[in-house]
Amino acid sequence: MRDEIRKLESSVFLDAVTAVFAVVVDRAATSHGSDPTPSLRETAVLSAAVRAFRAVRAASAVIGSGYALEAEPFTRMLLELFVSAKAIVDDESEVEAREWLRGKRASGIGRRVRAAIPDGSVYKDLSQATHGDPRALQRALLKVDGEKRTIEWGPAITPQTEEQLKHLALAARDFSVLLEEVGFERQPEIAAVDQALERHLPGWQPDVNWESSPRDRQ
After folding, report:
1. N- or C-end of the chain: fewer Cβ atoms within 10 A?
2. What is the mean pLDDT of residues 123-128?
3. Are 26 and 145 in contact (CB under 8 A)?
């Protein structure tokens, strides 16, 4: 099972994108450590990116064991982290960063995530998986054959396997971009990741207005 999943195109692609994410986080951490006066926004977004990297790798390991449904709580956490980190990037006053670092932005995160994504059912499904709601089990693992209803409860490759791997790759890319947007140096590898995503996910396009902060080009 592990070898079969590891050979999936989406799994190979995720490993490549995650490797770039690791490089981006490492460079940002090195820059942050050498800056005598890092901004709160940089500190907060770097902290979110570190947690996101760990979540991506942990979710990948769970999916690789044949348990894609059990990786959905990691996807929920990544969504929440991204919404918080994006708000921090967009708030130059650093109020958002300060409040998040103090743990003051946990309340209302579900509402903010639902407001940020067009399909509210996504967060609902992820929350059901996180909280052990039986509807998650039925959604992901129930098979209906006429009158027969069966839960395939063992490890397996399911439609969620490929879907989750793609979501993780997108998360790794998006957090890499946030590190640039908050002010860390531009990473040339992200352009290659975007080109690969356009080939791997038909119809996907990077944000047309995205451009990293110019700190490294001043």
Report:
1. C
2. 94
3. no
Domain assignment present for residue 148? The answer is no
Candidates 143, 139, 11, 142; CA nearest to 66 is: 11
Sign of CA dihedral 104, 125, 86, 40: positive
Question: What is the pLDDT, as a whole number, of residue 126?
Answer: 94
End-to-end CA separation in angstroms for the chain: 50
C-beta separation of 84 from 48 below 8 A? yes
Does residue 105 fall inside a structural domain? Answer: yes
Q: How far, rounded to the nearest angstrom, does the alpha carbon of residue 201 sit from its chain's CA centroid?
A: 16
Tokens of residue 20, six digits: 């770039």
Of 13, 42, 2, nearest to 170 by C-alpha is 13
Q: Global pTM?
A: 0.90
Residue 28 belongs to a domain: yes
Could you tell me the residue range of the domain that residue 17 belongs to?
2-110+156-217
Taking the CA atoms of residue 191, residue 192, residue 194 and residue 198 in that order, the dihedral angle to the nearest 10 degrees is 140
Instruction: With H, G, I as helix, E, B as strand and everything else as coil, classify residue 39.
Output: coil
Mean pLDDT of 70-96: 96
What is the domain count for the chain? 1
pLDDT at 20 over 50: yes
Q: Check residue 187 and give its pLDDT.
A: 87
